[in-house]
Design goal:
2 domains, 5 helices, 60% helix, Transcription factor WhiB
Length: 90
């Protein structure tokens, strides 16, 4: 990982590194996906924010509606996301 002085201005900014695409799903921009040496850490940082938890909950809901996860898995994953959100408030 590079030092904080070397990080791009967009580092960890959810709306810049994982914006909503035209089809209603979030997408990683091409410049991030192919050309950024810190893309993985950047996206992890963005998803560790309060807005990132909301995105995770959106994914859980879509998966549930599509039948990709069971009721209990949905409940468990939402509970984990909720707990991460509580930790951020402390």
């Amino acid at each position: 990982m590079t030092s904080n002085d070397e990080l791009p201005d967009c580092f960890g900014d959810l709306e810049k590194v994982f914006p909503m695409g035209p089809n209603g799903l979030r997408e990683t921009p091409e410049q991030c996906f192919y050309h950024c040496p810190v893309k993985t850490n950047c996206l992890q940082q963005a998803m560790a924010t309060k807005n990132g938890i909301q995105v995770e909950e959106e994914v859980i809901e879509r998966s549930s509606k599509a039948g990709a996860i069971s009721f209990f898995e949905r409940w468990s994953r939402k509970k984990q996301a909720y707990r991460r959100g509580l930790k951020m408030k402390k």
